[in-house]
Amino acid sequence: MFLIKKILLCVLLISGLTQGIPVKDSTKISKTLIRKFELEPRQLVWVFFTDKGLSDEMSFYNPEEILSKKSIERRDRRFKQIFVDETDFPLYPQYLDKLQETCFVIRQRSKWFNGVSGFADSSIINKISALPFVKNIDIVSRYKSSSKISATEYKPVQVIQPESVALDYGASFTQLNQINVPELHNLGYSGQGVTICVLDAGFNNLEHEVFTKMNIIAAYDFVNNDANVDDENDHGSGSHGTATLSVIGGFKEGNLIGPAYSSNYILAKTEDTDSETPVEEDNWIAAIEWAESLGVDVTSTSLGYKAYDSPYQDYTWTSMDGNTCRITIAADLAVKKGIVVVNAAGNDYDNANYNTLGAPADGDSVITIGAVNSSGIRVDFSSVGLTADGRIKPDLMAMGRGVTVAGTHNASDYYTGDGTSFACPLAAGVIAQILSFNPNLTPMQILEALRNTASNKDNPDKYYGWGIINAFAATNYFSSVPVELTGFNAKVDGDKIILRWDTQTENNLLGFNIERKYGDSFPANTQNDFVKIGFVKADGSSAGSGSYMFADKPELAGLYQYRLKQIDLDGKFIFSQIINTMLAQPKDLVLYQNYPNPFNPSTKIKFEVPGEALVKIELYDIIGRKTAVLFSDNLDAGIYEKEIDFNSLQMELSSGIYFIKLTSGSLQRVLKISYLK
Length: 677
Prior knowledge:
Rossmann fold
């Protein structure tokens, strides 16, 4: 009965006695908040406490009492010790009880900031400011999302991927191949053992086929305070979250595969997307603290925030200094606890006079991601630094235009999306792959590896940062290679070539790229024209010897060279000695499709000759007229490749279809080619 009367009294106070009561001038109340109350009688505020209770009580806490098992395990992996500081201690219950006696209704709690948020009128604020354990009271900053470009209903274009790639990525191959993700997938690293939290605007189509195999271990809606992160006819639409989640961890062969499709996922709905509704910072802070308690390893936030409290703007571009916005402070604090925090740079274009970042992308420990197109050129909307204190942002780049994403209308539709919103989850997925390979790396070591292996590492700037991510090279950055070979040989076995090699010491955590070259001339020191044909994973032992084998089945007979390729600690390529071998000679005249085709101005023609003969290659037009003799010479049996340059033919040829006729003795073969002028 007492509780019911107390709640009724609070309702009466809030509904009937709030108008016209000024906020007392107090050093505990921020000037911004006082100005806000002059405009609106009810505000969303932070109430911060002086401490976490009696210090002697705090000393009795053991890590196991205040941290989750997964949080302890993460800190132990990253830092080799379990450290606890005051930010880990829970809020003091007696302070919360006293606060609620003022009729203050708590909305979100933050042990990291030692405070709570909630709505209050001026009379409640006056009561709170008189409490001795209240340190200060401030406005909960309200942000407008940095203009994000959402997924559009444009069907992705399918691409041709090499046969050496183990998975069928469909249209998503382009976005992954640019950052060298498939090579790690081939090795078996797809984010397994890593927990990722995606903080976004909700997830409204988890029934989509790309999420069938996804392991979602927790989900919470911090906007509406329930466990349903779908739209659910409440505040916020989840189409954006559906798209970003699919990019980082979806899996549907032939359509869309994310870098970290084997990771565990935590979903946090933190943004209210309803029209003109600003986002409060306490949602994001509460979400990342919650994720930390669940043992998260990586967070991905495809949102950026700027102040929206008209007519008073608490934060501007000058606040993007890594130490002003509470969201940024929380993000950096999460990194100190062993979490890799990844954030989109924003989509506010370039400005010659100041940065266009949105918090928490300005954090010095946050990995900030900008957007490039499929050709590696920065997309014009991608936000730029420098931060207000002169640091380079963004840190890295990934594809953010024409990215294949899961649709939101049914379980099998796919669209393309533009925005740093989609570059961010690609980067976060790569980081999960790196942690799958080496779970002991700290967040700052991962940032170091990514920066020092990216495309612009020698000349970082405010547009590209350190450049486009190279997932394989970053994973290998802290590896112990190369190894010392004691033997490397090749043996022909029917239509196969069997490679074998042995190692003196085994300090290789990754393995060996196998590279091959074919042709009729093999200078011993030639490094050109070698192509990767496979990879053999190393045993990963710290000492001892290793023996390895790789079977190659070339399509053509003839001479071949092989070498092994490794990457040294400084990022330099180390090659083994080159070995030669040869398959049986051709038994028939064979003419292979030229490449490239169509072409301009040159193309390569590959053919097999079964025996010594005069070999001619002639060019015919579409109506069968011979226009040129491209090659004529006596050749031995073997495999050959000739490059034809149309610019050197001393004649004017128009675009169109032509025919190549290969003649060897009495044998002939014909090939159709396409010339584009």
